[in-house]
Each structure stands twice: as C-alpha cells, then as structure tokens.
Amino acid sequence: MTEGAAPKKPGLRALMMPAPKVPPRVVTTDASLPAPALPETDQTRNGRLSIEEEVGRGAMGFVLRATDGQLRRDLALKVAPAPRNELSREQLARFIEEAQITAQLEHPNVVPVHDIGVDPEGRPYFSMKLIRGQSLEAILEKRKAGDPGTLAEFGLRRLLDVFLQACQAVEYAHARGVIHRDLKPANIMVGDFGEVLVMDWGVAKLLGRPDAPVSEPSIGDGSSPVPPRPSYAPPPEVTSIRAGKRGLATQLGTVLGTPAYMAPEQASGGAVDERSDVYSLGVILYEILCGELPFDHEDPQVILSLQMTEPPMPPSVVNPATPLALENLALRMLEKSPDERSLTIRRIRAHVLDYIEGFGLDFRRDSVWTNLQWFIGTVGLFAFLVWYLTGHSVRSLLVLAPSSVFNAFGWFLLVLSFRYPLWAAYVSFSQSRREHDRFKEPSEEDVFVSGYAAHRTFAAALAPVFQLGFVVELVSAAVSQATRQVGPDDVVEQVVVQLRAGWANALISILVFLFAYLTLLSAEVRFARRIDRHALFVARPEWESTWPVFLMFVLLLSITATGLLDWTLGRSTFDPVRFLWERVLTEPLDPFDMVKTLVFQGTFLLGLVAATVLSSFPFAEILAALRLPHQAADEASVSGRQQYFLRSMAFFRIARASWLYGGAMIGCLTAITVLSSGGKQPLAQQVLYISGPSLLGFSGFWFTRRYVLRYLDGAPAVRRMLDQRAADALVEQARVNHAHVAGSAVRTRLGEFAVPVVCVFSYLLWTGSGMDEAAIRSLVLPVSTKGYLLILPYALLFPVILLRDGVQAWRLRRRERLASAGEP
Length: 824
Fold this sequence. Notes:
11 strands; three-stranded antiparallel beta sheet
C-alpha cells in the first residue's frame, strides 16, 4: 500500500477469518439484556463517517448515528458487540448475513443497507438509512400511558396503516424466501413523515436451508461436507454467507427471538416457516387492539411455557371497544398449531383492509331473536302497505284466494325441484344455524346451501309468472259462464266483474311472491356474507330483472282493457277516438290526490328498498360498496381483494332487485285496490297510480345498473375477475350438487314424494274448514277456478323428481367431457 493511500476495505473473506472457538449458547433478541459498550473512537473509515451518538442497542449489537462527510447525510451504523476476533464464527456469520439479507430485500418497508465494513477497533459494521421517528413499541407505550399527543396522532386507524405496511414488508420477504423470526413493535420504525420500516433481520432464516441438529459437528473439522439442498425445497432468491453451510446453520433446540412474540414452534426450538411470522404479527395486532401482550411475565421461561400451552385472552376482555372482526383475526393468527394458523399475509392484509373499508364488521351468527325481529319488521311493513293502499287487512287478502296462493306455491316447488331436492330446505336450515369459520374456505355443505338459497330466490321470482295462464283461464271461464247464465246484453258487464275478480285473485298470489322474493333474497345475502361466497350473485340470470317490467305492462293492459269494457256498456258500437276523448283526455282529474298518492308510493318504495338492503348488509358495508369506483382496480389490487369487489357487486345486485321488485310490489297493491273499487276513478289516474311506483322502481334499477356498468367499463381487471369467479362458481356448484344428491339416502329421496301429497291435503283441509268464507263475503269478490289447474304443478312434481337426478348427472358428465376436450 502506498503512503497516503486509503486503506482497502476488508472483504467478506477477511471478515470471516478464523476466530477463537465460542461454545454454542441460547440466543435471544430481547433488548433488555446487557449490551456491549460503545467503541471509544468517534469515527471510522479514515474519518469519512463521524459518530454522533447511540440510538439503540441489543444483544446482537448496537446502533449508532453517524454522518457521512462526503455525501453529507446522516446514517445509522449497526456495529457488532465485539471485535471480529472475539466473536464466534457463527456470530460473525450471522451479523454479515443480516447485512446481506437486509440489503437484498429492496422494498419500501425494509430499511435500505448502504455499506459493510470493519471499524478501526475491528468491529464489523454495516450502514443503513437513519430513520427519524419512533418505534411502534414507543408509540404503544405512550398510548398505554395516556399521552394526549400520541392518542391524537395514532388512533386505531393509523396503527392499522402501520400494521399493513409491516405486513407488506413481511409478505415481500416471504416471497423472497426469508423468514424474519423476530417481528415485534421494537423492530418496526415509524418515520416522522409516515414511512414504516421493518428493522433487525439479524435472526432471519432463509427458506429451503435446513436447520442442523445440535449434535452436528461444526465446519472446519473436516468430518462433514456441506449437504446438498433438498430437492423438494425451492431455492431461495435471497442468499447469504451462511446459506448452504451446515456448520453455520441455526441449531435445532436453540431459541431465537423475543419470547413474548415467539410462535409456539419457535419457542420450543422447532422448525419455523412463514406461519411463525404470522404468529408474531398476530401478537403485534393483539397489542395494537388492546395495549397488552397475550402473554406477559417477568420470567421469559414462563412466557415461553404460556405460549405453548395457554389460549390467549380475547382482546375485547381487556378493551371492550375492540372490533370483533379484528379480534377474530388476531386470535386466528395466534393459533397454537401452525396448521390452524394457515392465513397468508395477503389474506391478513385483505381482512384488515376490508375492516377499514367497512366490510366484515359482523362475524357473529345472527341469533334467533335478531332474525325474528327482522321478520316481524318486514311483515309489519308489508301489512301496513297492504292496509294503506287497499284498505283491507293482510288476513283478508290471504284468505281471499287460497286457491291461487296454493297454485303459485305448487309452481314454486316445481321450479325449485328442477335443480334441487326438496329436502335441501332442511339442510339449509340446519347449516344456517351452525357456526362458520370466516377464515376458512366454505365447506361443500356451505356451497350446497348457498346454491340452494340462490335457486330458491329464483323460484320465488318465477313461480308467479304461471299465474298469467291461470288468469287467462279465469277470463275464458267468466265469458263462458256469463254467456250461459245471462242474456247477450249483460255479457260485457259480467265479463268485467269476473275479469276484475280474477285479476285481483291472481295479483294477491303475485304480491305474496314478490314479497317472498325480497325476503328470500335478503336471507340469501346474509348466508353468503357469513360464508364469504358472493360469486353466485354475479352469475344471476337476467330474467329476474325482466319479469317485474313485463308485469307492469300486463297490469296496465288489464286496467285499460277493463276500462274499455266498462265504457262499452250500453253502447252498440265501439269508437276508439271517442273512448280516448271521453276516458283519457277530457275526464276530470284530481291533481292533489295524484301528487299525494305518488309521494306516499315513492316514500313506501324507498322504505321497502332500505329495509331490504339493511336487512342484507350492515350500514358500514353499504358505505364501503358505494366507494367502489374510488378503489384501485389494477390487476394486483383486484387479485388481492377479490372478496371486496365480489361483495360490492353483490350489494349493487341486491339494490337493483330491491328497486325493481319493490316498485312492482307497490304497483300490484295499487292494482288490487283499483280492481276492488270497480274502476270508479278516472282511467288516467288508475294508470298513473299503477305505473308510478313501477316507473320509480325501474328508474332506481336503471340508475344502479348504469352506475355499475360504467365502472366496469373502466375497470377491465374487475370485469375479468368477476366473469372468471362466476364461471368457476357455477362449475363448482354443479359438482357439489351432484355429489350431495348422489350421496343422499334412498328414504330421503322417497320422502320428496310426500311433499305434494301433504300440500294437497292441507289445501283441502283449509278450504273445507270454512275459515275463509267470512273474508270472502266481506270483500265481495267471487273466485273462479278449475281443479286441474290447481293441482297441475303438484302432479308435475312426480316426474320431475324421478328424472332430475339422472338428467343432472348426464349434464355434469357432458360438461366435464367438453371441458377435457377444450370446448366451451
């Protein structure tokens, strides 16, 4: 070396020069252990780095604040606890490995490493970014002490942001094949400008590098070569000086880490993997929620024993304000068994983000009393609407037409049995009462019940359609009866009476099933939320949105037809121009009554939509779904938060259906009133009263649908994800349905045939008892029907039940053959 030349920086080979043997020992990273003294010199590397002060210390070394004289920036120096010739080979290798691993983890939430070297006193060091801020540990201690400034600056929302950024660093490290093994608040730095950095990777482990047994000889005695890497372990992306060197591997049975934050397998000296870091993050989240550690004691051995044997106390016991969703997440991350601690960091982040957005607030199963309250509330709203808009009680309307309700229920069972066995209702009830683990994928029973609930709602929408054919038969029967009983001059009047009676009769059934549709839809959503499976809402058939619109046109056509027939009474010829002039253009209207009625109808419709949506989603989740257009919709964000987008789409689907079916329901109620009153109001007012709520409902439906479609047009990643999840859900549903039906007992299948028999017997018992006669007399609405139409759906149930399972098995096999052949 020439005179005046700067000394050469020692390489890694020089840093690893032989050192005196030091016997293996138990290593912990508890900062409360004695730390080595500061170096006496105040500078390193030929005066370039000037030492300012100590900023932290621990068993693995101490951290100094220094200034780089050339670049004029402050740095943090991590210095080994002793000169390299006083360190064991393992200690020195671990120190160098920390610098190498940290330097290779180039992530915004991992502290950057700049340089590595040896100070004038022979102590190895490496320099890194100096973070101006405080550790999460200091923040939590100040919060616990009640510091006003800390409480104001670091509320739960801000602390969750810190936790999420720490999770991002750990997730990146896991992707690079690195396990931290010492995650704790003291190793998470929060900068003054919001940056969050995970520190101290001194005991990190590279995945795929096997731990050595305690009895293995150390390297250098020539008795054991370096073993090859196991073929089943993928090579880690991050490497270090200790990678692949058996003698420098962590000894099994050695406890590395901080006792209060160790996973049970880590505390027992066993093998660790990503799930060990999940446990440590769970302790951090637990401490964020309630300010206490799950297990705390002055003796570290007691803590280690508690970690392995005792369940943690729920955070809500310490802090009753703890959100239930985050408490359940923390407790799941603190499971003793690594197999039960199966949440990935990505899913943990998704759960926390969902909580921040407002999703997943309620993880409890609804109690019987809660369900009863919602049912009473919805029925009460329905009864009030019936009373206000028709002037009759619900009982009167229901007993008015037991035949049409009985017929519509038969069609409902028939539609339902096309895809699901009737005993699925019992499975649905029993499964809905069971507790469900929100952090596990839905079981096959959950998938089966979810599909059944979706098809049950669809059946409730489709069943009333068959009433249109029933009404046609009623009209033809009325014409035939009027022709036989009275002279030709009275035919028109009798047809009008019978037509109004038939329509009122059928509309009661349609009204009941419209209400049933909204109720079943709400129940379907609540179950889907409980198992976190919303893909079937994306795959909803569009026909469900067509039926209410078609019903509105049928209602308007019927009201116009009856008005036209009324006008023809006593006239020998039909003049459409005169009819239009007298009944539409010149007939006096009541503007005040029209405005009042429309306002009331709109208010009731809004209340009905709000009741349906609020019975399906908590208010916070509704607000979260409304913020959907403001969420990141790139591929990475969508893949990490698929459940959020699915749940948001489920909300908009429910809102659309509520507007459409709510408007049709109020329109039916108004039509029943008009038909019952004999059409005494002006025809224009009748049309307005019936079409008004339907048009309002359609407007709400159209606006909601357009809002979603415009968002999806600008978010192709979301649209692709929704389409793929919907297709996968339908395939999975078909497979699970076939498996459940094929695995059912023979007596269970035969029990289905008893359902139509019991229904027919119950109807005969009801109509034969005379319980409906008083209501029919009070309403003065005749009922015309034919027996074969009533029992037709029940008769069709028998062949459908016989053929259904075979047809579904054939369709499933055909779909599998097409999929294997690559055909759509």
